[in-house]
From TrEMBL:
One of its GO terms (biological process) is enzyme-directed rRNA pseudouridine synthesis. It catalyses: an N(1)-methylpseudouridine in rRNA + S-adenosyl-L-methionine = N(1)-methyl-N(3)-[(3S)-3-amino-3-carboxypropyl]pseudouridine in rRNA + S-methyl-5'-thioadenosine + H(+). This is 16S rRNA aminocarboxypropyltransferase. It is found in: Cytoplasm. One of its GO terms (cellular component) is cytoplasm. Belongs to the TDD superfamily. TSR3 family. GO terms for molecular function: rRNA small subunit aminocarboxypropyltransferase activity; S-adenosyl-L-methionine binding. Residues 3-32 form the RNase L inhibitor RLI-like possible metal-binding domain. Keywords: Cytoplasm, Ribosome biogenesis, rRNA processing, S-adenosyl-L-methionine, Transferase. NCBIfam families: PRK02287.1. It comes from Natronosalvus hydrolyticus. HAMAP family: TSR3.
Amino acid sequence: MECHVYYEGDDDPKKCTARRLEKFDRAILHRSMGGVPYGVVLNPHAEQALSPADKTDALDTLVALDCSWESAEEAAFSMNGIHRALPFLVAANPVNYGRPFRLTTAEALAAALCIFDEQEAASDLLEPFRWGETFLTLNEEPLRRYAECADSSEVVAVQDEYLADE
């Protein structure tokens, strides 16, 4: 599955996971929205959760937006594609370690790959990051359970179990 990132460039370049993904040929960066291909867009504002059922709609393309959390408003995600929100997961990156829903671009793409039952691709994507394997380990159970779901409603039901425990 090909990973694409619409890159806004408003984060610290030294901490930007999208730029690192590009450097290691793990993702294709687009600096204009016009070049972003159609696929499944990872959008925290989407009304539906990402599920394994979305893999057929992805057309082998995952799209993420790389921007600061401060500017991650709904309008920023106005890309063509099927918009889906990631379910409850915990960040492993040094800036937001342990915080739910505060994933880097690399973590978001890897999570989507895991939900699509592509763990090896997710591991490969996160290989350039010293905390990459920690993300997969930290979220191993929820990612496995989300990948076993049939559709978005089942993913939301599993997510609700984790949120009830928080």
